[in-house]
Description:
Chain A: Keywords: Acyltransferase, Pyridoxal phosphate, Transferase. The complex is a heterodimer. Chain A is of the alpha/beta class.
Amino acid sequence: MGNLYGDNGGVVQEHQQNSDFVNYCNKMQGNLVADMSNCGSGDLRARKNGFKANETEAKPVNGCLKNCSTNSTTCQQAKGKVCPNSSQALLTPAKKLKELAEEHTTKTSFEEVPLHTACLTYLGFYLLMILGYINQLLFVPKVAKEENRDGYVTLYDAFESFYSRYVYRRVRDCWNRPICSVPGDEVTLKDRVTKDYGWSFQFTGTETRCLNLGSYNYLGFADAKGPCAEKSEKTAREMGLAMTSSRVELGTTQLHLDLEQLTARYLGVEDAIVFGMGFATNALNLPSLISPGCLVLSDEKNHASIILGLRLSGATTKVFKHNNMRDLERVLRHNVVHGNPKAGGKPWKKILILVEGVFSMEGSIVRLPEIIALKKKYKAYLYLDEAHSIGAMGPNGGGAVDYFGVDPNDVDILMGTFTKSFGSAGGYIAGSKRLIDYLRTNSHAHCYASSMSPPIAQQIYTSMSMIMGLDGTDTGRQKINQLARNTRYFRRRLAQMGVITYGHEDSPVVPMLVYLFSKIGAVVRTLTTRHIAVVGVGFPATPIMEGRIRYCLSAAHTKEQLDYALDVIDEISDTLGLKYSRKPREPNPIEY
Amino acid sequence: MLKFLKNILLSLYMQYELVTCIYMFEPWEKKLINSFVILTLGLVLFSSFVYLPSYFETFLQFVSPLPQKEGSASYTPILQTQKMSMS
Ligand SMILES: Cc1ncc(COP(=O)(O)O)c(C=O)c1O
């Protein structure tokens, strides 16, 4: 079902995008779970954006928090007040935390949706729904019938199939677009046409070369030529394409061991373990780390793989508002004080805070130093999913940990994927030797899943050593700097134009809000005619209100390419009416 | 000049299509919605031209503090004001 919805412009990571839909559903149900186990401890359900949520008044849990006024920075003050009389001293002084919180707010761009746009968005959505139902009554297409299935349960959920047939179908040409080249700085789309409004597509046989603003190719290692590709090819010739066995049986080679060593060195921790699939790294390792009776505090914008893992583990999950430290502290404090209500108020076995480094739909960055301070204060564990941040953030490409300059040993479990910055596939978990040894004996992904394919491992190995500068050149460093410059430049130019973007100024994922469902389609289509490939994201992957276009920057882009893209975006946001922002605009031209 | 006007009209129509999500519909659905919108608009305009002036007059007479002129209108406004005050 996922790929009907995949909001992925088909540019590359299909599975990622498809899972975003699942992610959304999971989130909804995850929230339900949270509610049931929650016994009315405040409102965890608010699925509003975290920045917004910062301003809403949370229910104070106890006296100490009552003096908190309405925003997160003052929350830090309150913490400062609490500090002296609590026995646990914070390692980072409260004042510094306050500064950090302020810095986070200034660096994060966010704007409320204009009221009339909000109304129009809902109006448009209802229109789509109503006409969809009329359409469904009048014309039942052949594909929509299940034959010879009397007495069986229907295969499709009614609302889901309705939505994909009568709402999503109308703009289906903007997603799952087939490509026929390496998704580097440019990508070749296979052209297709539809004669029946999205029910079916025919290839025209022509191709369009597009500037690729849709791939997670942050450091530009996805390339059909160059040292990475050559070495992988060599490995494929020597070792074959697959190990056809799991790691604990016959699937371990020297390459895998080297890769694990290098990953541990790269992250600055004791040991690491690698898996053949990033999604499975989360989904299958979380159940071996936590069990029923543990409490997990999960960010509301977490990825589908994490949510699946949490469900499989059977641990109690509570969701906190996106990147909202005040809400996190409230939930943490409540649960430390009251314990597990199902076990009669006994303490939880473990409390695990689960966050991502860079959130792929919001473009925001985790507030790591503050979370680490909280985690130390309340003696919880921290699991950090660096899928999008590893390689793309920090002066040495070490992810969010590197970006904030915190000690990697402060994060108990460092997880990440090789699918994005390294231009490969797979995932890792890194941490202390004890943790990794435990996973080596207990993880399902290690014991039962097939091991990573050698050319894939080689690609990671080569690109990682390039980032670390082990190949004797400074290509890796150049790429990191290029990405950082591209990101700043692109984000600032967009802000100058007057479109609304979300997220942190250093995050290479740039969501641009277009709100209306039809505008997502219009933007993707118009940009394709101008030879730019982007990804549109709409309901159900985001809330109805917040349809968006997501640009992913890459070190492979040059300034000229970005300038071209920005000029086109400027032009079309005039014609399509995307300049919603009411903030003052930077009058001077922006330097690269 | 004509072309310029046409362009402006076209872009306005595009904006209208986008904000109402009509952009995404099939042609027959577009026609349906557009005729619905035109019909509603037409009815509103028609009624406001035909009925509104007289209603407005009655209303003014009803609210105005000045004593009413006798025999000011042929369609017995007194009757209507009575109705209104009753409701
Ligand atoms: C936060 C996060 N975790 C895990 C994954 C899964 O990684 P993979 O695509 O390698 O399966 C993704 C995205 O794809 C992600 O965004």
